[in-house]
Amino acid sequence: MVNSSNITAIILAAGQSQRMGEKNKLLLNINKKTMIKHVVDTVKLSHIMNIIIVTGHEDKNIKKYLNGIDVKFIHNHSYKTGISSSLKKGIAALPDQCDGALICLGDMPLVNHNDINQIIAAFKIDAIHDIYIPVFNGRWGNPVLIGNRLFNKIKNLSGDMGAKQLFKNNPDLIYKIEMPNDNILKDFDTARSFNDM
Hints:
alpha/beta; eight-stranded mixed sheet; two-stranded antiparallel ribbon; 7 helices; 10 strands; 28% helix; 22% strand
């Protein structure tokens, strides 16, 4: 059992939002608040100790809309190479003695703090696994929590697959958390996805 709550959230906010068209989806308003602000506010309500935001595309605008919030910004100059480069940047910036990293996507504003706390609770109770994935009706979702024993393996990731290759190579280390709703499955990549809200 992990007794401390020394878990840092890494919010990936570096992507180019290409499927959305000309607009950066993270800066679009949902109920008078940008998507990225929704995500950050939700994480701050959870049992997370620290927040790292990895920026890339439109770095200055992301920071502007999060001005005054107690987070650590890390800029990924290689953001065009894919999400793995942002993940590695975030892991490299983790504080010392970090027990685990909650990997959050900046385009999932429907995930709430109770969802996050359920994932953290599973991590704190379980002592065997290193990868904690929320599941709804058999489908894997996000955010994912990764224990510190796997941080070094993340350094070898590449491309636009994020940590999926890590999961594929270490199935015995995965702990699936059944969630009560499908918030963990809903990201917003296209203009249509916003219209469907």
